[in-house]
Write a structure and sequence with these properties.
The complex is a heterodimer of chains A (122) and B (173). Chain A has 122 residues and is mostly helical. Chain A has 4 helices and no strands. Helices cover 70% and strands 0% of the residues of chain A. Chain A is flat and about 80 Å long. Chain B has 2 domains: 30 residues; 134 residues, Glutaredoxin (3-Layer(aba) Sandwich). Chain B has 6 helices and 8 strands; from the N terminus they run αβββαβαβαβαββα. Classes of the chains: A mainly alpha (122), B alpha+beta (173).
Chain lengths: 122, 173
Amino acid sequence: MKTFKIFLTILLVMGFSELKSYEKNNELKNKIFKNIRCLICQGQSVYDSESDFASSIKLTVNKKINDGMSEDQVYKFLREKYGDWVIYDPALNKNTYILWLLPLLLFLTGGAIMIKKLNFKK
Amino acid sequence: MKIKLKLITTLIFLVFCFIIFYKGLNNPNIYTPKMNVGKNLPTFKAQDFITNTNIDSEKVFAEESYYIVNIWASWCIPCRKEHSLLMELNKNKSIKLIGLNYRDNLDNAKKFINELGNPYMQILIDKDGTLAIEFGAYGVPETFLIDKNKKIIKRFIGPINKEILEEIKLIVK
């Protein structure tokens, strides 16, 4: 009986961890689908779309993840095929320097002006 | 001095805004896919349309020749339109046509080929559309021209027309 209980506990723990990893994998896939633009749809991500293109992309991503590709590797693969536009979250490269750095620059400039004004008032 | 500085800063800001808007508004807001040209042919395994056997892409593109990969489906109306041009292209001996049957019903695809003729040296089945993704395609019909070094040198989105046919003939001459 005791052996059976131990066996059952091990089985439950194993099943639970399997379920956890399945859930984690699914979360990752959904995160990727939400970050891929459906190129033939109007303002929809692959996650939201039921088009042929979107379902082919979903199947490809599933396959790549199951083959052991990481999230970044999947994005790199899709960028190579379709360009930067296919990913909603743009990567930092020479085409997107302004996009990424301008808000920071404006924030710093604004901050500097504010500090200067406050110091001036004192 | 202070007023001058403010004026220059405002002017720079306005010029900057103007450039951003000018460039942004001049860009077309309709997405045009990246031309996946100059890239190597993807390697893959696919099922043959006639024999139903699995085949490696290296075997399909084994010869040192120009290849056309045409993505088609029986449910695609523009594919029907371009088919006669593919039949004409098939007469050109310096090019080999490979068909990629995209997300199609096999019986309907066979009917399509029997009715309109088979311009392809080999047809591969892309049941779930994942092979088309490997090519960087986004729909049907789409045509890729592959050179002797197995590089994609041209991509034609949508049905091919007479002008495209002449362009292909000129390249492979």
